[in-house]
Design goal:
It comes from Brachionus calyciflorus. The protein contains six helices and eight strands, in the order αββββββααααββα. By secondary structure, the protein is of the alpha+beta class.
């Protein structure tokens, strides 16, 4: 009899499963019922307390949720939009907003969430903000060859999957050289050239200021 009672209690047990995502500022948020979000209130080694991000109260001054919950899919789309924008900006700074949006277009599938999606213009403005915030600190355009100074991130390759870089500026003839020149390459690339035939043409008509093709 006790076993049957326990089975009935377990069958009637309602467990709400929450999903953790991130806010626009990168802080963890707990989503319950696909629309109610909670931020971390306090935590220790064994327990995390969450507090609802909405501050709605009924006439009895009891906490209640807002009339229209924010869909989890919309939060996830915005979070992944930020991640993709930051990652792409490190590799291809000229990548357009529409190309970035294409990579997260399938994140929202719920019809109600789709109906409440931000406009393209709103997403485009968010992408531009993410780009601006994560844009490298490029030096000002030099007026002479002697003015050229490379920050460290421009003298190394992009990080590989292990987070490692290698030297990309192999030679600088120096600020005192009136015909100053630079050699950009990696040792691996030079090794490939040792046993290769090299072809060159003069079709390039654009060169950086102070230089010529």
């Amino acid at each position: 009899m006790a076993v049957n009672n326990l089975i009935d209690q377990l069958n009637n047990l309602q467990i709400k499963i929450g999903i953790v995502t991130a806010s626009q500022r990168g802080h963890p948020q707990l989503c319950v019922d696909n629309g109610y979000f909670f931020r971390v209130y306090s935590e220790n080694e064994s327990k995390i307390s969450w507090r609802c991000i909405e501050q709605y109260y009924n006439i009895d001054k009891e906490h209640t949720h807002g009339p229209k919950p924010t869909k989890f899919e919309l939060k996830e789309k915005r979070r992944k939009l930020k991640e993709v924008t930051v990652a792409c900006s490190k590799v291809v700074s000229s990548l357009g907003p529409r190309q970035i949006l294409t990579s997260v277009v399938n994140e929202v599938k719920d019809p109600e969430a789709i109906a409440n999606m931000p406009s393209y213009n709103a997403d485009r403005q968010c992408i531009q903000r993410y780009k601006k915030k994560n844009r490298p600190d490029y030096p000002p355009e030099p007026k002479t060859l002697a003015d050229i100074e490379f920050p460290v991130f421009l003298t190394e390759t992009l990080e590989n999957h292990e987070g490692e870089t290698e030297a990309f500026l192999l030679y600088d003839s120096g600020k005192d050289d009136p015909n100053r020149f630079f050699i950009f390459a990696t040792k691996k690339n030079l090794k490939l050239l040792e046993s290769s035939e090299i072809f060159a043409d003069g079709t390039f008509s654009i060169a950086p200021t102070l230089f010529e093709q």
